[in-house]
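Example: Magnesium transport protein CorA.
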Amino acid sequence: MRDPVTPPNHSPRRKHAARARTRLPRVKRSQPGLPAGIEYHELTQSANSAPARVCCIDYSPERIQVQEVGDIAAFLTNHRPDWTQVRWIHVEGLQDRRVVRALAEKYQLHPLAIEDVLDGGHRPKLEDFPAIGELPGRLFVMARGVRLVEDQMLAEQIGFFLGRNTLLSFQQTSSPAINEIRQRLDNPRSRVRQHDASFLLYALIDALVDRFFPLLDASSERLEMAEEAVLTCPETQSLHALHLIKRDLVMIRRTAWPMRELVSQLQREHHECLSAITQTYFRDVYDHCVQIIDLIETYREIASAVAETYVSVVSNRTNDIMKVLTIIGTIFIPLTFLAGVYGMNIPMPETHWQAAYPVFWAVCLGIAGFMLWRFRRGGWL
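Written out as structure tokens, the predicted fold is:
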């Protein structure tokens, strides 16, 4: 289920500089002392908030109906068609609190779950809100993915509310995974059309997990190029590229590891809204998560090994340079001694000999040649 993605070009220095300025992940916390959760009346609309995009998809094995919701109040007053087997309502844009409040009141979403949806820094998790009185039971799933936008790794968060026949999803921006599932729903023979709402949840989470593979493939190719550059022509840019690769792998791991725990809970824990068929399919998603974690750990070890190789290559190059300089200096030690002795401004018997000058050069060249022969025979050159 992988999608071919062209690996980005990370060669220009400008892109390296832009990626180096990527901020580290930070945890946002509300002001201390505030109560937990967000009540419905607290979902107030700000003046400059952008309108949300709401898409409702009603489908059954035989039919499908897609509608873009403009008036949320009028939409919620109408009942779903009788032929509908699953209703999927997807919201893009969480600044529009009017839409969030209308859906929360209609489907009686829990205040704690609403707070988690509006907060963009949560780990993937699974929350069970059982039925209490007239309040229907729902399964709240917080999922996260990673995608590449303009050569930068960005995390995306999607909150799901699963009912028996309804699935609500909330996201800040559009996601390729959402678009992929919408295209699959257009096919009457798609398995998503043949099953319940929990199977739709599986398909969405599976699409999020599969988006990790193209990113890891791109990281693998970048790692191979960095390794080749280190072994052939090690430069400071090679070490900088390795640092960016390791940084991206850490971010992918930070998202993929809790996603594995989430999928493990979905395939293990029983819930009234999860069918047995869906839990069986979640086993395949769990296998993908395990494979992703293994690839991440492997690439991290390779990146660390390549970084150590870079240090070793640079050290060996420095040692070779120092060895050559040391040999040159050693050769010139006796020559400097002879030049210093016969360069003194005092009378010497050899200075009155006519052949003294050529003999002096012959002795110097002989000493240098002998020392070069000795160094080569000893394996120093």
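The CA atoms of residues 232 and 304 lie 18 Å apart.
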